[in-house]
Amino acid sequence: MKTLAKKNIIEAMTIWTQKYDVLCPTQTAPGDCIFDTFREKTFTLDYKKPLSPKAMFFPHSEITFKVENNKYREVVSSKKTLLFGIRACDMMGILQATSFMSRDQKDVYYSAKRNMAMTIVMACPGPQNETCFCTTTHSGPFARKGFDLQFYDIGDTFLIEIGTPGGEALLSAIPLTDIDDTHAEQQIAKFQKKALRHLPEVKSVVKAMKKLKDDKADEKIWDSFGQKCITCGGCAFVCPTCTCFNVYDHQFSPGNGLRARTWDACLYGGFAKEASGHNPRASQALRLKRRHEHKLLHFNETDVQGSLCGCVGCGRCSDYCPVHIGTLEVVKTIAES
Ligand code: SF4
Ligand code: SF4
């Protein structure tokens, strides 16, 4: 097995930039941390849970085709990307989103970007904040599959777990040190055991899923949440497994225009509205019910990729909802109702 000394990480990242657009945890001026293009000045290893990297494969808005002087041109963009330092929940989010985007019909716009991307997971030594529940959803705190490489931070060194031949190839040009396999495996096992101990299961998730399945959840909770929700859509936008989008056409002049898609959210009033004018989810209560049932009850078994459900337990909806209607709050309310 191999290790990378932390003091050599900048050198490794710089080498990878020769072949890839390297996206990594980046400190922004207002103090946020996001995944952005590697720059030595803003790259940080001192980070918690940046926004989900789902926009790398599924941008907030993207043009899918253009018509120029009556000539149709599909816009499928792809470039060699390396996602460094994503969390295990993000990896599971990518697996779930990729399954959804290729299960019935391949989404060429998503697939082109995903197929050109390498992933390096940074295993979590414990919760990144109080909203993490990835152990419960079987999505973390370390990745079990999907990654090209997984890094374990053991002080001034990263232990490196290889997930794919492509990941192994990434190591060929960077400064590494050999470590005895048995010793490395023991160190990884110790790291994983400690991480799991620090991130115990949240029993209300499983309890809420059972109540929903048995149709025993108190319906009144949705009315109460519905009255609080301000329909900002933030919970869907920060969610690594939310992949709904809207499509619109824009004509500039006869024979010239484009088609684009933008993120959509099931929390919006018009999301499920039918052409007849009928809206099967006419109230915010019903829309919130649908969102959480999709994550916890009506998820597709193929899509969940070995996780417990359609939620990967990242806790971001709880972090960002301005009125505290994250999945964690919802499952606790269902379980206690
Ligand atoms: S529903 Fe919330 S906790 Fe679950 S994956 Fe989405 S953002 Fe994360
Ligand atoms: S983030 Fe909160 S307020 Fe915004 S749509 Fe979601 S549940 Fe409603």
Task: Count helical runs.
Answer: 12
Instruction: Report helical residue fraction.
Output: 25-40%
**How many strand elements?**
12
Which spans have pLDDT < 50 for at least 5 consecutive residues? none
The overall pLDDT, averaged over residues, is 96
The main β sheet shows up as:
8 strands, mixed
What is the spatial order of strands in the main beta sheet?
Answer: 3-2-6-7-8-9-1-10
Count of discrete domains = 2
Please give the alpha-carbon distance between the first and last residues.
50 Å
Strand proportion: 15-25%
List the bound ligands: iron/sulfur cluster
Care to describe what's here?
The protein has 337 residues and is α+β, with helices and mostly antiparallel strands. It folds into two domains: 199 residues, no CATH class; 111 residues, no CATH class. The strands form two sheets. Strands 3-2-6-7-8-9-1-10 form an eight-stranded mixed β-sheet, sandwiched between helices. The radius of gyration is 21 Å and the shape is globular. The N and C termini lie far apart (50 Å). The protein binds iron/sulfur cluster (2 copies). One iron/sulfur cluster (SF4) binds next to helix 8.
What is the secondary structure topology, with strand pairs?
Elements: E1 2-5, H1 9-16, E2 21-27, E3 33-37, E4 61-68, E5 71-74, E6 81-86, H2 88-102, H3 108-115, E7 117-122, E8 149-153, E9 157-162, H4 165-170, E10 177-178, H5 181-198, H6 203-213, H7 220-228, H8 234-237, E11 245-253, E12 256-263, H9 284-296, H10 301-304, H11 316-320, H12 327-336
Parallel strand pairs: 2-6, 6-7, 7-8
Antiparallel strand pairs: 1-9, 1-10, 2-3, 4-5, 4-12, 8-9, 11-12
Helix pairs in contact: 6-12, 7-9
Bound molecules: iron/sulfur cluster (2 copies).
